[in-house]
Amino acid sequence: MTMRQVQEMLSKVIDWANARLRVNAQMAGSDPKVVTVTISSGQTVSNAINCEGRRIVQIIMPDAWTAATLSFQTATASDGTFGDLQDDSGAAIALTVAANQHIAIAVNALVLSDLMCVKLKSSAAQEAERVITLVLA
Asked: What is the pLDDT of residues 37-66, one digit of tens each?
């Protein structure tokens, strides 16, 4: 890699970091937003919600939950094509969850930052309608 290529790459990283700082500064004064998603009976995927570029900071599970892990699907628009959210090694982002859990998402979980549209995906069909609460910041 040439020195010019390194400088160009660093410039892009700095631009990205500055953009993140601007977003964080704007959001620092914003109140958390609480939204819900629903997984219908017999289904595995919820309706879509628009996170408006916010970060999921907490997931509140319903009182009843058919044993399953919870993963995420994302898209740039609610009517767009959703795909499974994966980390940089290609592994699905999934959480082990249970009924009535309140799950705090670590601050360093950047993979759940800056999301636009999200669906939650259960690894097993739910035996009844399940409403899951998300707190966005």
From this structure: 999 999 999 999 998 888 888 999 999 999
* Residue 34: pLDDT over 90: yes
Considering the segment(s) 31-136 as one domain, its CATH architecture is Sandwich (2.60)
Helix (H, G, I), strand (E, B) or coil at 96: strand
Cα 99 to Cα 13, 96, 103, 109, 116, distances in angstroms: 41, 11, 11, 22, 26
Are the C-beta atoms of residues 105 and 60 closer than 8 Å to each other?
no
Strand partners, 58: 104, 135
Whether residue 32 contacts residue 57, with contact meaning beta carbons closer than 8 Å, is answered with yes
Residue 137: predicted pLDDT: 82
* pLDDT at res. 109: 61
Please state, as a whole number, how many other Cβ atoms lie within 10 Å of the Cβ of residue 102.
10
The pTM of this model reads 0.75
Q: Where are the domains of the chain?
A: 1-30, 31-136
